[in-house]
TrEMBL record:
Identification of the protein by name: DUF323 domain-containing protein
Organism: Ajellomyces capsulatus (strain H88) (Darling's disease fungus)
Lineage, broadest ranks: Eukaryota, Fungi, Dikarya, Ascomycota, Pezizomycotina
Gene Ontology MF terms: methyltransferase activity
A Pfam family hit: FGE-sulfatase
Residue span of region Disordered: 492-516
Extent of Basic and acidic residues compositional bias: 492-506
Length: 582
């Protein structure tokens, strides 16, 4: 009734008597809003205006948003959540939001609107490229080498436009952008064998002194202007279309290269205009939402791999592809069991502590002086809880162990205790060691594709309600991996495996070999940490009872155990023959 009192105050006289009015409320299911009305309990007349008894006068409409609806709202509004503050029951929250410095499309109709990237696609890519390469590291540090086996950071500022210009020149039978000698300096990077750096492909000569940054940026702008002019005149030949596509893809890939190199630098700067998230608050929220990681039986099925692009003279209908992505082929993948989600930092920490392993993933930082004994005894756990709100069960590492480490992010080191539910970033050998300790293995490439396809199948059942009725409540560079097991068809899987892992949820739907292959491109929903929705990894434990599909790994790539090799029908790209060959 406070509204009536305020109205009286504004009008200057007692126009509305509280005893003459009631308040009626209802929830509008159609648009998800709460509506409140003043309702006179008798006919009320004010300056000739008659309000009939029972007439509803709307005075409040409050929209209610669940977590998923909030994410959609924030994304549409171009803002990103920084922190949230809720009541004790978790029903109401105040959200702290910040404007986004960029927005990358996540729907197929947007991010592959055409086979050829358009000028808007390039401008958006160049915007984020410039943000990362010029604003997240000081100019002096561009000469540093965060990864010793690679070139200095400044190389990539020259390499990306040089590579693009090489292919534009070939496709147009034109002349290189000046200075022409950049092709011999920035044409190809260096990526030697980690175990034996003497083994390395052909690469550009490394100069005794890199060109000045200003000169490199002038060259970059000239190449970009050339690309804009090409796009403005229209693209009619496959040769030119593929040159534009390969230039776009190449720069996007090296954006990732530059970012994971920056993460290895202690001099990294946060992205401008992006406030630092409240990682402690996010960890608490993740702890409340975490679910036990289930195991799923991935049925034997046929999996379609690669692109169909048989004509080297015609622009393809759907997409160009790299040589290792062609031709399209179908493989039969036997049944196997897979963990629902990737390995987390928390799980990997427990593995390191239990097995007294002192070597750390490159994504971790040891906060203890190097003279300290990594394998000391006496790890304590005074109250059974870690500092981020996780209950310290037998499966967790001790508090004292967790306190010693942090995770590298673009915002600086984040305490491990606040990143336990993030996917661990580690090398293949490190994750293989973890898998073997669990009597598991890292999946093959074909098995990973089978997981993605089956995950999409389960989502389709969930969308039409079938999975809900079958499954009850549903419980059941650096990269990550999930672990898998080969199935013995003669043995019925137990309720738990030897390590206490829950088996496949009861009544999991059985799928015959798929006749509907997974599409090449998919919509990337809220479960996909892509497109700079976040500048850090995100928890993967919230959906531990659901099979994680493509791009649902918290912001990391997924390792497979399949070495790169020439599959049947492989043919090197005419445009870039050394892409896979070297």
């Amino acid at each position: 009734m406070m509204g009536l009192s305020h109205a009286n105050s504004i009008l200057g006289f007692h126009a509305f008597k509280k005893e003459d009015w009631d308040v009626a409320c209802r929830f509008d299911m159609a648009n998800g809003s709460h509506k409140a009305y003043y309702v006179p309990n008798m006919d009320v007349s004010l300056d000739g205006v008659v309000m009939k008894k029972g007439e509803k006068i709307l005075f409040e409409q409050a929209f209610k948003y669940g977590p998923k609806e909030c994410k959609n709202l924030f994304q549409r509004a171009g803002v990103m959540p920084i922190a949230q503050f809720g009541n004790c029951t978790g029903e109401y929250y105040v959200h702290l939001l910040s404007s986004c410095t960029l927005e990358m499309p996540t729907q197929v109709t947007e991010y592959v609107a055409d086979v050829i990237p358009n000028v808007v696609d390039f401008e958006n890519l160049w915007k984020i490229w410039d943000t990362v390469t010029l604003s997240m590291i000081s100019q002096d540090e561009l000469l540093s080498k965060p990864i010793k086996l690679r070139n200095a950071l400044i190389f990539y500022l020259g390499h990306s436009p040089t590579f693009f210009d090489i292919h534009l020149t070939r496709a147009t039978d034109g002349i290189p952008t000046e200075p022409k000698h950049y092709q011999s300096v920035f044409g190809r990077g260096i990526d030697p064998d980690v175990d034996n750096p003497e083994l390395c492909h052909d690469h550009s000569d490394i100069p005794s002194e890199w060109p000045h940054l200003g000169e490199i940026l002038t060259y970059r702008d000239a190449v970009r202007s050339r690309a804009r002019a090409v796009l403005a005149h229209g693209v009619k030949t496959r040769r030119l279309a593929e040159a534009l596509w390969i230039g776009f893809e190449h720069e996007a890939m090296h954006l990732e290269t530059f970012l994971y190199m920056l993460l290895q630098s202690d001099k990294i700067l946060p992205p401008p205009g992006v406030p630092q998230p409240n990682f402690e608050s996010l960890a608490h929220q993740s702890a409340l939402e975490s679910r036990e990681s289930s195991w799923f039986t991935i049925p034997e099925q046929q999996v379609s791999i690669g692109l169909h692009d048989p004509d080297d003279h015609v622009i393809p209908k759907h997409s160009f592809g790299w040589d290792n992505e062609k031709p399209k082929r179908v493989v039969n993948v036997p049944a196997f069991a897979a963990q629902a989600r990737p390995i987390t930092n928390g799980e990997y920490a427990k593995y390191l502590e239990q097995h007294h392993i002192s070597s750390l993933p490159a994504s971790w930082i040891d906060l203890v002086p190097k003279t300290a004994d990594v394998r000391r005894n006496g790890y304590g756990n005074c109250n059974g809880y870690s500092t981020n709100g996780h209950r310290q069960l037998d499966s967790g590492a001790s508090n004292e162990f967790l306190e010693r480490f942090a995770i590298r992010t673009v915002f600086g080191p984040v305490p491990l205790k606040w990143a336990l539910d993030w996917p661990v970033m580690a090398s293949f050998n490190e994750l293989q060691g973890y898998a073997e300790s669990m009597s598991c293995r890292i999946p093959t490439f074909e098995e990973v594709r089978s997981i993605y396809q089956y995950s999409m199948f389960l989502k389709s059942l969930e969308d039409d309600g079938a999975l809900r009725s079958m499954n009850g409540n549903g419980h059941g560079s650096h990269r990550n991996a999930r672990v898998v097991k080969t199935l013995d068809k003669s043995i019925e899987p137990p309720a738990e495996d030897a390590h206490g892992n829950p088996r496949t949820p009861d009544h999991q739907p059985v799928q015959s070999p798929s006749t509907n292959p997974m599409p090449v491109f998919i919509d990337l929903d809220d479960n996909c940490n892509v497109g700079f929705k976040h500048w850090h990894h995100t928890p993967v434990t919230k959906h531990g009872n659901r099979l994680s599909g493509q791009s649902e790994l918290g912001g990391v790539w997924e390792w497979t155990s399949t070495p790169l090799h020439a599959h049947e029908g492989f043919k090197s790209m005419e445009l870039y023959p050394g892409y896979s060959g070297n």
